Every structure is written in structure tokens, then in C-alpha cells.
Amino acid sequence: MKLQYETGVATLIQFVALTLLNVATGTTSVVTQCRENSSDCVGDLMISLIFFLLIVSWFAFVAMLGYLAQHRRSKKIALVLIGAETLIAMVAFFNARHHPDLLSLITSVVDLLLAVWIIYLAIRLIRAGDGRIVTKSRPRRRRLPTTSL
């Protein structure tokens, strides 16, 4: 399935993928912190939970923007989506450069790639305006009529 301008579907994919990756990253972080400093495990768990809820809320908001941009074909909403995805890409790039472990690096790289992909789709949506987005078609070869003998 090739997405042409479906920012709603793309941001939903981003929401699900990053929610799952952040569950894994948060769990790893809490377990590591509890092994090193077992006196404040509950506090670390609560901070990680609050951070996770903030991340999920942000990506839910971005998914809503993606759906609205696609559904309404709004250039303004698509520009806001591009701004939000640019912010996500910058944070993901920073996190990728300062990752504490391999899972955090994978999460940041996936986040960065999805953000760039959604920016591309939003730009295509803006360029299309109210019209349909179609691919360039190849010239069709004409078939010669077959003759029956």
C-alpha cells in the first residue's frame, strides 16, 4: 500500500509505533534505574508514567492534526502538521545523538524517519490543494487488434 497524501493514516502509524516503542523504552529505563538505585523505584516509575502520558498525548494531538489535514484538505492544518513534525524530527535527532542504549537509538531513528515521511506527505497534500493527487502516468501501449483466421 503506497500512501500518497494520507496524513491521517501516517500519523496513526506514527502514534501506534511510538507508543509501543516508548512503552519498551520506559520499561527498560525504570528497570535499569531500579537496579542501580532501588530506594526510589516508585518515584522513577511515577516520573516515567507521567512522561509516557505526555508523549502519548502529544502524538495523539499530532494524529488528530494529520486526520484533519487529510479530511479537510486544509493547507493551514497541513502547515501546522509540518511544524509539529519538524519539532518531533528535531527532538528525535537530538535524542539519537545522545542515546543511552540501543533501544533508545532505535526509537529515535524510527521517530525521525516517520516524521520526515509525514512531512513529505503533508507537502504533497498542500501541493494538491483541492484536487486529487495522482501519479504521473506512463503512455499506454496500444494493442493491435487480433485477427481471427
Can you walk me through this structure?
This protein has 149 residues and is an all-alpha fold. It has one domain. It has 4 helices and no strands. Helix content is 75%, strand content 0%. Helix 1 runs antiparallel to helix 4.
Low-pLDDT stretches are: none
User: How are helices and strands ordered from N to C?
Assistant: HHHH
Largest pleated sheet: none
What multimeric state do the chains show?
Answer: single chain
Rg from Cα: 22 Å
Choose one word for the global shape: elongated
How many domains make up the coordinates? 1
Please state roughly what percent of the residues sit in beta strands, choosing from under 5%, 5-15%, 15-25%, 25-35%, 35-45% or over 45%.
under 5%
Total number of helices: 4
- End-to-end span in angstroms? 43 Å
| Range of helix content | over 70%
> Count of DSSP E strands?
0
Mean pLDDT rating = 88
Question: What structural class should be given to the helix and strand makeup?
Answer: mainly alpha
Provide a brief overview of the structure.
The protein has 149 residues and is an all-alpha fold. Helices cover 75% and strands 0% of the residues. The protein is built from 4 helices and no strands.
